[in-house]
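Researcher: We're teaching a course module on how sequence relates to structure. For the next exercise, students receive a sequence and then see the predicted structure as tokens, so they can try to spot secondary structure elements on their own. Here is the exercise chain.
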Amino acid sequence: MPLGQTARSGCNVRSHYDPAAIEELAASLKAEGQIENATGRWNADGQVEIVAGESRRRAQLLRQENGETALTLLVNIRDLTDAEALSISATENMRRRSMTALEECEAMQRLNAAGRSIEEIQAMFGFKTAQPVADRILVAKNLLTATREALDNGQVSLASAMVIARATGAQLQQELLNWAQRGHSAKKLGELLTDGQFLVEHARFNVEKSGLAVRRDLFDAFPPYFEDKNGALQKQLEWANAQAEKARAKGKHQFVAVETGTSLWGSLDSNKKYEYSYTAPTGLIYFVNTSSGKVETSEKYRLKASAKAAAVATGQAAPDAPVRAMPESAFLEAHHYRARALRESLLGHPHLGLILAVHGLIMGGSANGSEGRTGVRLSTEVPVAEPALIPTLLAERLDQLQARVQGIPNRGVDAASTVRVGHLRGGVEADSVKLFERLATWTQTELLDALNTLTAAVTYDWVHYSMAEHPAAPLYSILAAQTGANTALARDFKLTDEWLKRYPRHELIALAEEAGLGRALVEDCSTLKEMRARILEHADALHREGFVPRIVQFPAVQQDRGTQ
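Model: And here is the predicted structure for the students to work with:
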């Protein structure tokens, strides 16, 4: 057909074409001619619309723009319905793996709308189950503009888009999109999607015997929850009250109560019946969260004097339940006095300040205030003595520092690992004094060097977040950019079977997509082991390219355009 008598088909499932690939194809057509015919059909305007082979048509058009004339396109012209044209376009592009995730979803939705069943589309695309097809059709139907654009340009994975598509309303979809763009997984998005629902997993009562209806997503995109939330809460309260009666019968606690609210700490701290206590004896409180249905217990509260009589009368408290203690404000004010005196006395002693900084980093791993911590806080949950977290060069520096402060006993670390790990701690008050005296003999340069070594040993702390899946703090991204940590990350990370075993099925699919391997590589696998094996075939090549999964990367630093 003359090139001018051809047109793009409305049944073409693709909308994105790589200009560089079109240029390469144009050069090939010029050198070798058209090897494979396109497929088309006549339209109402007397043109042949190209159902399969649009890239070849665009390559010829590019040659025409560059000055070549009398160009044609070889086309197999057929009588095709829209459904048949869509099937041909989808099949060819799927075979060539040239569709984006969104194009694939829209192709399946259009095929379904044209009369193809989910089972027929499943067979056409070679999936073993109907789940991938149903998920993609849902994405094409329900995903709103902002998320469609984010999926199309690779800002979110297809797995995340499948969860977002289940959210009703633009506001909720936008909120989930924001979480996805901050690096949170599809699993986390599923949890957010059910926020405020009473999840079945939180039920302490017998769910099967309760008679309550449970809503389940067909493909487990989010956890099941009760359709009758109030009915489930009532069952949960009945269970909590029964447990409270058993605890009262044991007589272990001064009082036992059942409370409700949306936050354990917030509800109990604002409740006029209780006050928080750091010392025993205290009571036992069963707390039923009216938002999630989750049951928590606390033994950190005592009764206020004004609430004791009512608690005793209802059988919740024993007659001798304590209700008063030294008020917290007294202890706090004593701390204020000592802090003000010491801080004022230290003014004008800069060398002492430097000594105390190094002293505090060495001694600060202990939670015992008697050892003289100076306010330089180290995590007590993730000790410095974690060998896997200490690089070789840093371990050597810590070895040298250990040798300088030798004689200080180490607590909680075996002798064999002390030097290699550099977990420097004092044991008792006397050891703290000896350490101070030894540091007082060091020069300012020596102290600064020790300070740098110890700071490096404790940088990057994540335990102050409530969840391990929280992304790295922005500060660490800035440090990574300035120190070359991103290069080291790419050098040290490589996909292994041990790493991939952490991934559920939908995250393995997302990983294959993120790595540029394509979802089709693993999506038809029947087992996780087979999926891992296919990805690992590309592990060496990905390592050479410096591939690091998004979950491992330092998050991108958001620069404020209004500042220099």
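Model: If you want an answer key for the exercise: The CA atoms of residues 216 and 224 lie 5 Å apart. The first strand starts at residue 6 and ends at 8.
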